[in-house]
Amino acid sequence: MISVTFTGLRERLQTLDRLEREQLPFAAALALTRTAQAVQEELRTEMEVAFDRPTRATLNSLFVQPATKAKLEAKVWIKDGRSRSSAGNIVGKEGAWGKGRAASKWLTPQIYGGQRNKKGFERRLERSRVLAPGQYVLPGDSTKLDAYGNVGQGRLNKMLSGAGILSGTGYDANATDSDRSEAKGNRRFFLIRKGSRPIGIAERLGYGKGSQSNIRMALAFVKRPTYGKGFDFFGVAERAAKDLLPIEFEKALAQALATRRR
Fold first, then answer.
1. How many CB atoms are closer than 10 A to CB 201?
2. Cβ(121)–Cβ(167) under 8 Å?
3. What 3-state DSSP class applies to 60?
4. 132-164 pLDDT tens trace
5. Comparing C-alpha atoms, which of 115, 98, 87, 113 is closest to residue 55?
6. What's the CA gap between 66 and 76, in Å, rounded?
7. What is the DSSP letter of 84?
8. Is 211 left (phi over 0), alpha (psi -120 to 50) or beta?
9. Is residue 184 very low, low, confident or very high in pLDDT (cuts 50, 70, 90)?
10. Contacts of 222 (CB under 8 A, 6+ apart)
11. pLDDT tens-digit series, residues 50-72
12. Which pLDDT does position 165 carry in this prediction?
């Protein structure tokens, strides 16, 4: 979390007259909040550079906690299901990224480095004993990704259905030998093993010479991936706050004086 606060405020107070000092709490809170909002936009711009085709959920994952006259501190951080938006409303876990998928779960590894948390379908595979404890899922080198660099949910369902991992009815069901499953393309995906151990989901592309199946890895089951720091959250935020706060304070003080009660 980045906190935007004043430094050197005592020195600045010495340059203000009585009227300006009376308006100081309002101006300071306004300046801190506006600076935090500007920092939020700078971080959003940095996301578009740091990440490959970031999703809308990622770009909208930051929130601002405004400063008040009683608490001269504004904060910028990642929505986690309990955070408040810049409007003061609770940001729930359901929304742009769906139930239970707090943005902090996938962004904090990019900020601090380290290992990521399991995704919902990975936990599902682990419960089904398809994934071993400590294993994660990565797309194969040739797997088609969506506009945001992810395996789309529809395609992921096809893979899991073909591998016989899904349960239920309708779209959330495993592939069968029916013509419908064949038409949907689910049956070309299957669980591939090394000995008795599942190592991924493969895709059957057709048959080559000698009726030998031509396959490629669609999803690979791997050890927990480790990420480097891909998003310079604190560096970008601190530089922006340092540059913008003095400017926003002068603007806010001028506004406070212009709109003060006479």
1. 26
2. no
3. coil
4. 988 999 999 888 887 666 788 888 988 998 888
5. 98
6. 9
7. B
8. left
9. very low
10. 135, 136, 137, 138
11. 988 888 888 999 999 999 989 98
12. 83
Q: Which residue has the tokens 């682990």?
A: 126
Locate 36 and state its tokens.
């935090």
3-state helix/strand/coil string of 115-151? ECCCCHHHHHHHHCCCCCCCEEEEECCCCCCCCCCCC
Residue with tokens 């806010």: 252
For the record, the structure tokens of 133 come out as 């404890």
Beta-carbon-side half-sphere exposure of residue 230 (alpha carbons within 13 Å): 18
Q: What band does 20 get if pLDDT is binned at 50, 70 and 90?
A: low
Task: DSSP letter for 225, please.
Answer: P
Chain-centre distance for alpha carbon 212: 42
Q: Round to whole Å and give the CA distance between 246 and 28.
A: 10
